[in-house]
Structures are given as C-alpha cells and as structure tokens.
Specification:
Helix content: 40-55%
Order of helices and strands: EHEEHEHHHHEHHHHHHHEEEEHHEEHH
Shape: globular
Number of helices: 17
Strand content: 5-15%
Distance between the termini: 22 Å
Oligomer: single chain
Number of strands: 11
Radius of gyration: 22 Å
Length: 456
C-alpha cells in the first residue's frame, strides 16, 4: 500500500467514530467546494457515514482512487464482504443497498466470475451500431426540441437530457416504448438515493426479468437478446441484473454528461462560437464537461479483503471504500498535471471494472449536444448566473433543472416522424455467438501510479 501521503488528522479506528455524516444534507451544495473542504480536513481518504451507523471511507486522492480500483488483490467488488451487512448496521430496506448491495452482475463480482460476465457484456455492447444509435438520438432530440421550441424557454434536464437518455437506454435494452417514462422515473429514484429506492429497484428488476423471459423465445434487436445468445451462457437472472447494471451506470451518468456539456455551452458564448467556427468540436466540449464535473461523482465501492493501512488510515477487512471520481479529478487539475482536453480523468472508472459502455454514452451525448447547437440560437441561462440546484446524492451530480431562454423557433419539418420513429440500433441475433477469450477490460499489470496514469 502507498503510505507516502498521510492524512493531516488521525483517522478514527475502530470505524466509524468521528465520521462525517453524508446523510444530513451536506451533499446538497456545490460538490467541488464540499469535496475540497473534506479533503482539506482529512487528506486523501476521509471517514464518512452513509446512514445512521453505516460507515465508509471516501477515497478522494487521484493516486489512491487508482490504487483502489486497480489493486484487486487488496480490494474486492463483492458486496458480500461488507462488514456493515454482517454486523447488521444496514437496514434491509436501506436505499444504499440499491446501489451497493450484491447482485449476480459483472460490477459486483471478482476474478473469473467477473471476467465471464464482462466478456458477454463487452461483446454485446460492441455489437451496437453507433451510427444508428446517433441517428436514433438525433431524431428523438429533434422531437424534444420541437416540443418546446416556440416557448422561448426550456428545462434542459427534465425536458431534454433525462427523456433523451431514457429513450436511448430503453431502445438499447429492448423495452417497449410504453415503459419509457416509467424507466426514467425508476432510474432517477435509484440513482438519486430516494426513500423509495429499494422499491424502485425491485420494480426495475421485475421489469427486466419479464423482458428477458420474453426475449428467450422471441429475440429482438437489443442488448437483452444478445446477452442471452452469448456463448458464456448467462442465466436469465444474470442477464436481467447485467441489464440493470448498464441502465443504472449509464442512465444517470449520461443525463449528467448531457447536462454538464449543455451548461458549458449555455454559459459561455465564446465556447459556442469556437465550436461553430471550427477550433473546437462537440467532442472537445464533451470532454471538458467530464473535467468540469463528473456525471457520477462517486462509484459503487470496493471492500477491503484484509486489515491494511491505506492513505494513512487503518482500514478493517470488510470496510467499504468509495472511489470519489469528482474529487480525484479536481485534485489532478489543481496540480496542473493535465489540461481539460486530455482524457486522464476518471469519469469512466478504470481497471477491469471500467465502464464498458463509454462509446455508446459518448455517441448519445455528442448527438444530443450537436442538435442543441444547431437548433437553439442566442441561448442564455434562464436563472441568471446562479449555479443550478443539485439533488443531494452520492451517485449523481445532475442538476435538478437547467432552465434556459432563447429566441423562439419553429418546429422542424419532420416533427411527427421524429417523435413516432421506432429505431433499432443493432441486429437480431440469429444463433448463439461463439466469442474469443474474454475481454476483461484493460490489461492488469502490477499496479503503479505511472503505468495507471499512462494507460490513458
């Protein structure tokens, strides 16, 4: 373990005495300022309390986050190791379990069990036709803009980013159009840590189980069918839970990414001009948005396999450690290690559990931003220069709303067609796919700061 950077104050042990309570409204403020204050007090790793009596370590240092997600010999992704569960500190109906509880899916497994499922999910996502996906997103985006274009004002979260991401994900997994609004609501409840998150997750899982059962007999042009057809022979339960993992990791992150990129453009006329005139591209704006505020500020945690010293703190076997991507990125920028045009950020995670859907997410976001740039002129913030209010959640930095004002415009010529289109973004699998040896994500050399950084 790297012990070169010690916390400025002694870490509490045994845990969680002296922890910072994150369930008392502290997250309902500017995330960057909050994480900077926490790091100024504790250093790279801080003791926090996720709920009454439920402790964890929030890992905020860039190097420490890299080590946490790369060093699988020391840290596990299997939530069944969580000592808070064993000790009975987490209520059975806790909203935390919707994100942190164990599931038979790739993000909650280690070693060969993880590699087996990662192979199927990666191969399936690689089968998405990104050109068709971008086209489907553009059609839906045009329809959404047409819905409020004559008003001269809009909410680019509730009226654009959220329904657009929900549409794209619904098409990807294979759910019918009638489930689209409900799907978006369920994903928002779970990612937002709402009180009904446990009920929302149960409903989402039931929805996906029904979909998978139907696709077993009647394959369609979607992720559900291709996962069932893959040669690793996933069970229906494994397919359903991996679809849930894709939706939960991709849904709120895509909404947050679209919101962040559009907010950059709305608030900076020079940036809009740079994109319009050619020095910058929509892709550049998308990358700047990832640096400016991670769509997912924290990712589902890791659990210590044994007692150890990490970041100057005594960590017990089974302790939960949460990688704080937002704080790690701001630390890197503060030290001037990378400019905002690079991709050394950790928005996708890294290591063998890095996001396998980043190409699809990028296609959705870039198409969404491109449509807004073409359709809205002289757009400006609708509430002055105040920062948008954010939902107080560990797992989402998406603002609750992003009001904008603009010169009213007429709907596009194909509004009805765009709204009623039923796109497909991949083919229908004809038979079980025999895939080569597992693509388990990036190769895993012995961990070090430099080889992890340079892997970007």
């Amino acid at each position: 373990m790297d012990q070169s950077r010690q916390s400025p104050h002694a870490c509490p042990f045994p845990f969680p005495g002296g922890a910072v309570p994150l369930h008392d409204g502290l997250l309902d403020q500017d995330p960057r300022r909050f994480y900077e204050g926490l790091r100024g007090r504790w250093g790279a790793i801080a003791p926090v309390e996720l709920g009454p009596g439920v402790g964890a370590w929030l890992v905020m240092g860039y190097r420490e986050v890299l080590e946490l997600v790369w060093n699988e010999q020391a840290f596990s992704s299997d939530a069944r190791r969580w000592n808070a569960l064993v000790e009975g500190s987490v209520p059975e109906d806790s909203a935390l379990l919707s994100v942190l509880g164990w599931r038979p899916a790739l993000h909650r497994l280690d070693d060969q069990a993880h590699r087996r499922q990662r192979q199927a999910v990666t191969a399936t996502l690689n089968g998405v036709d990104l050109r068709r996906l971008r086209s489907a997103v553009r059609r839906r985006a045009e329809a959404l803009v047409d819905g409020w274009s004559t008003d001269g004002s809009a909410d680019l979260v509730g009226g654009y980013a959220r329904p657009l991401a929900g549409h794209a994900l619904r098409v990807l997994v294979g759910l019918p159009a009638s489930e689209e609004r409900r799907l978006a609501a369920l994903l928002g409840s779970i990612s937002g840590g709402a009180q009904d998150a446990a009920r929302a997750e149960a409903e989402l899982t039931g929805m996906l189980h029904r979909l998978v059962a139907a696709r077993r007999d009647a394959p369609g042009p979607d992720l559900a069918s291709w996962l069932l057809a893959h040669s690793v022979d996933l069970t229906e339960a494994e397919v359903a839970h991996n679809l849930a993992a894709v939706l939960l990791s991709g849904g709120e992150s895509t909404v947050g990414w679209i919101s962040g990129a559009t907010r950059l453009l709305v608030g900076d006329a020079r940036l809009r001009a740079a994109v319009a005139d050619g020095p910058l591209t929509v892709k550049d704006v998308a990358d700047r948005a990832l640096w400016g505020g991670s769509p997912v500020p924290n990712i589902a945690g890791r659990w210590a396999r044994a007692d150890l010293t990490f970041g100057g703190c005594g960590v017990r076997a089974g302790d939960l450690l949460i990688p704080c991507l937002a704080a790690a990125n701001t630390e890197l920028l503060a030290h001037g290690s990378h400019d905002q045009g690079s991709r050394a950020h950790l928005a996708w995670g890294t290591g063998s559990h890095g996001c396998p859907a980043k190409d699809a997410a990028r296609s959705i976001v870039e198409a969404a931003v491109d449509v807004l740039l073409r359709r809205l002129h002289h757009v400006r913030p609708g509430v002055g220069d105040t920062a948008p209010h954010r939902q107080p959640s560990l797992w989402s930095s998406t603002p609750e709303a992003l009001p904008v004002a603009f010169a009213p415009i007429l709907p596009g010529p194909n509004a009805v067609t765009a709204a009623s289109a039923s796109p497909t973004v991949m083919d229908v699998p004809e038979k079980r796919q025999d895939e080569p040896e597992a693509d388990s994500g990036p190769a895993q050399p012995r961990w070090s700061w430099w080889n992890s950084l340079n892997s970007w």
